[in-house]
Amino acid sequence: MSVISEFKAFIAKGNVMDLAVGVIIGAAFGKIVDSMVKDVITPMIGMVGGQPDFSAIKAGPILIGNFINAVVAFLILAAVVFFVLVKPMNKLMASLNKPAAPTAPPPPAADIVLLTEIRDLLKQ
């Protein structure tokens, strides 16, 4: 098998294509979540307590404020993902995967009933 045909077989595998689609969709979805945080959530936080900006905090040449800004942005993003996506999805999946109500066991087969009666008669 030539290298080209092996490469074609590798690329044509379903899991490679699924991964590519997942990465592309994930990147596009990431832009939506970033926009929601930047354009909706952060301005709402700014209206309540002022726009959070720690960039002026420095320890000599080390820009600690920028790091704090990145941490705060990450925490806001993580909270949005959790409360807007993960929590509702978990609730939806739990409601879809509810265990079925317990049902009465099926009646025993006729031969089992007969054997049970014989056993009970032999005990007497």
From the alpha-carbon coordinates, what is the Rg to the nearest angstrom? Answer: 31 Å
Q: Helical percent range? A: over 70%
Give the tally of structural domains: 1
Strand content: under 5%
What distance separates the N and C termini? 78 Å
CATH topology name: Non-ribosomal Peptide Synthetase Peptidyl Carrier Protein, Chain A
The CATH architecture can be named as Orthogonal Bundle
Mean pLDDT metric:
85
**What would you call the structural class?**
mainly alpha
Give an account of the 3D structure:
The chain is mostly helical and about 120 residues long. It is elongated and about 95 Å long. The protein has a single domain, classed as Large-conductance mechanosensitive channel, MscL, domain 1 (Non-ribosomal Peptide Synthetase Peptidyl Carrier Protein, Chain A), CATH 1.10.1200. The chain starts with a helix and ends with a helix.
In short:
The chain is mainly α. It has helices at residues 3-12, 14-49, 64-96, 110-123. The mean pLDDT is 85.
